[in-house]
Amino acid sequence: MESNRVEAFSDGVFAIIITIMVLELKVPHGSDWAALQPVVPIFFNYVLSFVYLGIYWNNHHHLLKACGRVTGGVLWANLHLLFWLSLFPFVTAWLGENYASPARTFAAVPSALYGAVLLLASIAYLILQTTLINAQAEGCESQLALALGNDWKGKLSPILYAIAIASSFIHPWIAGGIYVLVALIWLVPDRRIERALLADR
Amino acid sequence: MESNRVEAFSDGVFAIIITIMVLELKVPHGSDWAALQPVVPIFFNYVLSFVYLGIYWNNHHHLLKACGRVTGGVLWANLHLLFWLSLFPFVTAWLGENYASPARTFAAVPSALYGAVLLLASIAYLILQTTLINAQAEGCESQLALALGNDWKGKLSPILYAIAIASSFIHPWIAGGIYVLVALIWLVPDRRIERALLADR
Amino acid sequence: MESNRVEAFSDGVFAIIITIMVLELKVPHGSDWAALQPVVPIFFNYVLSFVYLGIYWNNHHHLLKACGRVTGGVLWANLHLLFWLSLFPFVTAWLGENYASPARTFAAVPSALYGAVLLLASIAYLILQTTLINAQAEGCESQLALALGNDWKGKLSPILYAIAIASSFIHPWIAGGIYVLVALIWLVPDRRIERALLADR
Amino acid sequence: MESNRVEAFSDGVFAIIITIMVLELKVPHGSDWAALQPVVPIFFNYVLSFVYLGIYWNNHHHLLKACGRVTGGVLWANLHLLFWLSLFPFVTAWLGENYASPARTFAAVPSALYGAVLLLASIAYLILQTTLINAQAEGCESQLALALGNDWKGKLSPILYAIAIASSFIHPWIAGGIYVLVALIWLVPDRRIERALLADR
Which residues of D touch A17 (CB under 8 A)? Predict the structure, then answer.
């Protein structure tokens, strides 16, 4: 079974999730800068979730490129990942809405829920990775080894998310900082590995 | 006529339906656990519909892979299936909304309508399957035989849906139980057939 | 220039338009049959628009399959068609909403606007067809001739739409009847041509 | 790394953005021409944004066709472009809503914000173009040279957008005029280059 259609379907879901989030940027009713102000925190939240989904799409892209043999288990592991990712617009909007409210700058529960969805998505990604490796008849080791060079990040992220969830109840800004930090961890060295991959050829 | 573009279009529709449902998870206005509570039943409904759409996508994937020759009749049989699936977000939201209301835990009519859409989608799938088989010039029997190994499920499901629709008016929880049961019937042994398919090669 | 990406993009737009329409089926607030009643006319409208979009997708599919060479003019002629099709959810919803209102069963202006979008889409399709034929370096005549066997329908439809628009102001039900009629004209003989195409091989 | 999946994902995002904008065309509550009137300016806004997205899709199509080798940097440059494009529905809706209000025909801040998103998208496109050129191991010069024949437009556009943003605060209609002008600059000669490309073969 080839991975073409799994990729096409996943690409569709990724594309929709990433664009649906922007629907949460509600059009303000006034027409001056003041009217735009409540949208600003929701906008930054949108940026963060966009980056996260971009990271997942990139990694998903690399993973399926390295090991393309797809079984029924892989299909469901993939749907499982997409399920948690599909909750991004919801948790992003809830976090953003409370972030924008005057009373509390950054509410604990929405922040913890945002972390919970990130945590469950990262676990779903690890499951997909393991299922894909097990599904390969012959080794796609060399390519996977490079992909697994990312593996410390895949294992560190859930731990950081768990810390962020707990710290949401101490001070939500700590959680926010961790969410940004994990995104940066994934963003930055990705390019380095890329160069290693290209040099290898 | 090849099935590539039919798959691409269907994948697009599947991807959109599956992600649009999450728009029904309305962002709560408060920021504590209590505010999240009415979303919980809608969430579980979303999970169930997500699983159903995942099952349909998987089966659709297998069906078109086994028998790829597409005629005008197949195009319309496919659109017919997609039509009923496109109603999933609507019936899921209606079921979820009433499920969440304080007065009645699980309303009869929304539950019956949910079952009706499931029933019509399952009949549409059987029609698509028959149309595809008839469209093949030479037999794709060996692969289809394996797919038709699933056929008892394809024939049992409409019967169970019909029972669920009727039982919605006795007690909606029975209907809910049947909906979960049918999803499990499709979920579990799919993997077993998969292994048989792989062993065959 | 190949047509693959034009098809992929068009498929995406078709898939989204066809599924977005279902968002206009607003979830009723009650939980009985009475609550469902105002949704019924909107539902039938949705069916009609779904069939129209299905017809356009089918024809688009055949057209690009027959003549695949794509120029800049074709890209814009295609976008032009997709533009008018993208207005389907809007006009469908407006027609449905008024259709459901107690005061007037079927309002004149929404019915005329629905016809206007159908008319403009059908003209856009004729432009796309002409642009595609002109874009081919060598003749794809044999396949196009069969596609142009549909041409009387392509030329009759705009006339019928124009009549429907005018008749909206006499009695909207006449317009509604014509919209259903045109859909049937396209639906039914399509299969006959298909069989001719298959017999030809 | 091939560009297929990048194209598929981008096509998905383009298709969704272009169709999501139509959701901002809110269905009017009345059923006569007067009820339709507030939708008219939003409609023209929609046309303009549709044309802009069409231009971006066309250029994106040509760019990835000319130089298909994709690196991690290209993936992020592409996501960066898609990010700014994803804000089109938001700024289009805000511009349209104020445009329709009785008090001020065309508000300064929404017009400037519309220009800012256009400006940032055009810069993102230049970054993507540069990243793609740098990513190619061997030169795809001949094709890129033709693409870069468009380059004066790519460099003029950001300047015109900047002027439009500033002029929004003098008189928003000037900004509106510039937005239409830039769209025309891209639309018209595209076909001329196309013909040059075809003549070249």
Answer: none
